[in-house]
Amino acid sequence: MDSSGDDNGSEPTSPAARRLSYKFQRLRERIRAAIDAGELAGKLPGERSLARQFNVNAKTLSKALTDLAAEGLLERNIGLGTFVRDGTSAAPTAKILLLSDATYGSTLAQALSSRGLDVHSHVADGDLAPSLLAPFDLVLIASSAIGEEIVRDLIVRGKNVLSLDRLSKPYSSHALLPHHTLAATQAAKDLVTLGHRKLLLVPDDINDTDSHRAVTEAIPHAEVLPVSASDAAAAATDGFTGAVCASRNAPAVLAACRAAGMVVPDAFSVIAYGRLLESATCCGHYVSDEHIADAVQDLLSAGLPHRPLTLWLAGERTHAGTTAPPRSS
Question: Which domains occur in the chain, in start order?
Fold first, then answer.
C-alpha cells in the first residue's frame, strides 16, 4: 500500500496531497483511496493493525477515521469495530444496557431508541449478574443507586461505561455531565437582564460553592444568597425578587412561593438549571433526554476513545412563564 505522506516525514507526492497540511488529513485521503480501490471494505482491521499498515501513529489514525466517520464513509461502533459503509448494509449496532431509576429510565430509553440505538433498560438495583452484562457493548449509568464498586467491577470486566450526571473519579469511566455551573450562570444573567438585583440561589447542595462563585462573578452588581429549597420562600420576603434553582428543587420552590401567597412571576420569578427530569415546570436552562441521546449517538458514531472522556452538556433555554421584570422596574 502506498506510504507517501506517512509519519516518517516524507513529503506527499501529488499536488493535491501537498495542499493537505496535516498528517491526519493526508492519511484520511489515503484511506479514502484505499476504500475506493476496494483495498479496504467491510470491517476494518483493528486500529493498531491499521496504524502499522499505513505506517502512522495511533493518534493520527484516530483523527483520520473520525473525519471519515463524520462524512458518513465509515461507521465506528465501540466493542464492534469500524466498518466501511457500502450503501447496502449497515454496520452492526452497539448494544446498550441502560441502568436507571424506575421512574426515569423509560423516557431516556425512548429518546435513545428513537435514534436507532439498540437499548435495553434495567432498573438499577445493584444486582448485575455476568449473564445480564454479557451481550452489551456499553453500560449507560443513569442512576445514583449504582455505587463506585459496581462501576469498578464493570470496568474490570472490560465493559465500556458511560455515566450520566456524575464523575467516577476513582475508576475514570466516560461521563456525560450537564454543565450546572454554566447553566446556573446563564439563568442568573436572564434574571438580571430583566432587572432583578437580589437573587436566591437554590442549588442541589447548599455547600456547592462553585456555582455560587461563578454566579456572583458573572453578575457582580447583583446580590446572590445561597439557600435551601425549604428556606427559599421565607428568604424571598426579604427583598429578593427571583430564585435560580437546580432543576430538582424548582417545583418545591414554586410550590412554597405560591403557598406563601407570592404570585409567580408577578411578585417573584423562578428559573431553573440542570437536568430536565420531567416536563419543564418553570423557565430554565435544561439538559433534556434529547440532548443526552444526541450526545450518546455522536459518541458511538465517532467511537469512544480508550482514555476516559468527559463531555459537558450546556442544554438550552426553555420558556414556561415563570420569569418577569420585578415590580419595581
Answer: 15-84 (1.10.10.10), 95-172 (3.40.50.10190), 180-288 (3.40.50.2300)
